[in-house]
Design goal:
The structure holds 2 protein chains of 2 kinds. Chain A contains 10 helices and 14 strands. Chain A is of the alpha/beta class. Chain A has 2 domains: about 220 residues, P-loop containing nucleotide triphosphate hydrolases (Rossmann fold), CATH 3.40.50; about 60 residues, 2-Layer Sandwich (Alpha-Beta Plaits), CATH 3.30.70.120. Chain A has a 6-stranded mixed beta sheet, with helices on both faces. In chain A, β4 and β5 form a beta hairpin. The longest helix of chain A is centred in the middle third of the chain and has 18 residues. Chain B has a two-stranded antiparallel sheet with strand order 1-2. The longest helix of chain B has about 40 residues. Chain B is globular, with a radius of gyration of 22 Å. The chains are: A alpha/beta, B mainly alpha. Chain A: GO terms for molecular function: ATP binding; ATP hydrolysis activity. Chain A: Keywords: ATP-binding, Nucleotide-binding, Transport. Chain A: InterPro entries: AAA+_ATPase, ABC_transporter-like_ATP-bd, ABC_transporter-like_CS, P-loop_NTPase.
Chain lengths: ~300, ~325
């Protein structure tokens, strides 16, 4: 089923000084979708998010939110998104409730008390709203910032590294909250993170970028396909990899293993083939390609090219 | 309009403690002065019988006229002395006491001089010098940038917030002066007369309440000019909150004292904006310098325009991410 696009980034480029930070980046997020945005440090994730939220202007290309161009129709476009870019924008010396009121007053919308209370309940901060934010833990600040972003009933929430600095229970709470948000409100979530396991458990789709370019975009459902893991000696890993490529396979290196997607009945002949070339296979396991494999394969595959 | 109103309320919420603090300190100082006046009188000295104001004014004139004749017409003090003589002569001729005894006179006394040159700028710096810089250095500017209002409205609304909050503090201080005046004088003195100069430097007589209204209007204009300068520094030096406050303080409160030293040798210096903040002195004949009312008006309007244009360009282009 064709779903509406909440945000469309079309051929966007950005230069800072002599360096191209974002190079012809294109991506989109559908309604009700949770999309993970992955990339190594310095790959251009935060710059992309800053452009998507109107904080910096792209040199080329266009960004549309619900069909509104973020440059030409800024106010109309921004009414449809809520965002947390890097650290939550909260006043430590004000209470949680007053922080929400600060956002309400400059939202340009009529937001009633019930809506504010609903947002507070959603992030489970009812008991702490009268306390000053400087007494909040980082996880509570992140949740308050999400409540702030939800006030205007946006179509999409953009979260830049929301689990950064959170302890394990904070990460679990954040994951539960994002799922709950999507399930109860249908809001799309665009989330950048370094924690691949988190993205794997949260997202419907991942987009990988490096050096400002989109390297791959993949549905999470297609990642989990069964694969065969072959364990060989470390010094024979590269040779085995190339041999399997010559056999027309698409092997993926994972630690000291090689993952291949192949029918079980062909495995003995492949192992035999490797053996005849002097490569000994020590273990054969059934496994599946994780997001980490996909990410490493995408980013390292680019380097190999 | 909603965004502007919202931002003004937001800034008020963030700054109300400072406002209460400023008003409390001012009230405390006023109260201390009153107490000192009532209780610390030197009773050992025999009080001279009260001298009539006409005699005082005539004595003043007797000193001013030869002083004026001794001055060169190019001397900045010449114009001030000449205007004071014109006003004093009119006060004598029309029988207008230069020191009316109504409570409104307590407000009118606050409208110029030290209040406008030092106290008002200090109040505005305390209230607004970090209006942008605090948000930029702490990252909370993102709350504004991510709202649908757009950058020019952020600038306009923050400037308005500084102006309105500072004006409210000024009005509160004037009300405090009125209360003290009422306690002392037991009457408002709405119909007391003042001899002033109009913009063509002709003498006119207006009532106390008219003078108060004129003074509040002109003080608000000066407040707006100071707010423009403070907001400009806060935005331009946004990544260093303390530095932005220091720059405002230096430019608005210190620079004019230094420039005054070279005012005679470098006439261009007289167009420095803070020399013209004491706007109402043109009407009372106490303006320090060659400029007339229209020159001061042009200088302050130009300052506002330059600060606004530079701030607008800065906020449009600034990369707040650092």
């Amino acid at each position: 089923m064709q779903r509406n696009k909440v945000i469309e980034v079309n051929h966007v480029s950005k230069r800072l000084g002599n360096r191209t930070i974002i190079d012809n980046l294109s991506l989109h997020v559908n309604e009700g979708e949770i999309v993970g945005f992955l990339g190594p440090n310095g790959s251009g994730k935060t710059t992309s998010i800053r452009m998507m939220t109107g904080m910096i202007k792209p040199d080329q290309g266009s960004i549309k939110i619900m069909g509104y161009d973020i440059q030409a129709e800024f106010s109309l476009a921004m009414k449809h998104i809520g965002a947390i870019v890097e650290q939550p924008a909260l006043y430590g010396y004000l209470s949680g409730w007053e922080n929400l009121m600060q956002a309400v007053r400059i939202s340009g919308m009529q937001i009633n008390k019930e809506r504010i209370e609903w947002c507070v309940r959603m992030v489970q901060l009812q008991e702490r709203m009268q306390e000053k934010v400087q007494r909040y833990s980082l996880g509570m600040k992140q949740r308050l910032a999400i409540a702030q972003a939800l006030l205007t009933q946006p179509k999409m929430i953009i979260l830049d590294e929301p689990t950064n600095g959170l302890d394990p229970s904070g990460i679990i709470e954040m994951r539960t909250l994002i799922h709950k948000l999507r399930d109860e409100t249908g809001v799309s979530v665009f989330i950048s993170s370094h924690l691949l396991s988190e993205i794997e458990q949260l997202c419907d789709r991942v987009i990988v970028i490096d050096q400002g370019k989109t390297l791959a975009a993949k549905e999470m459902s297609s990642l989990g396909h069964a694969a065969i893991a072959l364990t060989v000696q470390d010094d024979q890993l590269q040779s085995a990899y190339h041999l399997l490529q010559l056999e027309g396979l698409h092997p993926v290196l994972q630690n000291a293993r090689i993952l291949i997607q192949e029918e079980a009945k062909r495995i003995p002949s492949l192992v035999n083939h490797l053996y005849q070339r002097g490569i000994h296979v020590y273990w054969i396991e059934k496994t599946k390609q994780s997001l980490e494999d996909f990410f490493l394969d995408t980013t390292q595959g680019k380097e190999r090219k | 309009m909603e965004y502007i109103y919202g931002t003004v309320i937001n800034e008020w919420v963030k700054r109300k403690k400072r406002v209460y603090w400023i008003i409390s300190v001012y009230a405390l100082l006023t109260f201390a002065l009153l107490v000192a006046e009532v209780f610390v009188k030197d009773t050992s000295v025999q009080q001279a019988p009260e001298v009539q104001w006409q005699e005082q004014l005539q004595a003043q004139l007797a000193q001013l006229i030869p002083y004026k004749d001794s001055l060169n017409t190019s001397d900045p003090a010449y114009r001030q002395v000449a205007n004071q003589i014109i006003i004093a002569e009119h006060q004598l001729a029309a029988g207008v006491n230069p020191e009316p005894t109504g409570a409104l006179h307590w407000i009118n006394n606050d409208m110029s001089g030290v209040f406008i040159k030092y106290i008002l700028p200090l109040i505005i710096i305390i209230i607004g010098a970090d209006v942008f810089s605090a948000d930029i250095s702490s990252g909370t500017i993102k709350l504004f940038l991510l709202s649908p209002q757009g950058r020019p409205k952020i600038l306009l609304s923050k400037l308005l917030a500084v102006f309105l909050i500072s004006s409210a503090v000024t009005v509160a201080i004037h009300l405090l002066s009125l209360c003290v005046g009422l306690l002392r004088e037991k009457q408002f003195g709405l119909q007391d007369n003042y001899v002033l100069l109009d913009i063509f430097e002709r003498t006119i007589v207006i009532t106390s309440w008219e003078f108060t209204l004129l003074g509040i209007l002109l003080t608000m204009f000066s407040t707006f000019s100071i707010a423009c300068m403070v907001v400009f520094f806060s935005l331009i030096l946004g990544h260093h909150s303390g530095f932005a406050t220091l720059a405002s303080f230096w430019f608005i409160m210190i620079m004019d004292s230094l420039l005054a030293l070279i005012k005679n040798s470098a006439p261009i210096v007289q167009y420095f904006p803070t020399f013209h903040l004491d706007f109402i002195s043109h009407f009372t004949g106490r303006f320090d310098g060659h400029s007339d009312f229209m020159t001061s008006l042009v200088v302050l309007c130009a300052t506002n325009a330059i600060c606004l244009a530079a701030s607008w360009l800065s906020i449009k282009r600034k990369n707040f991410a650092g």
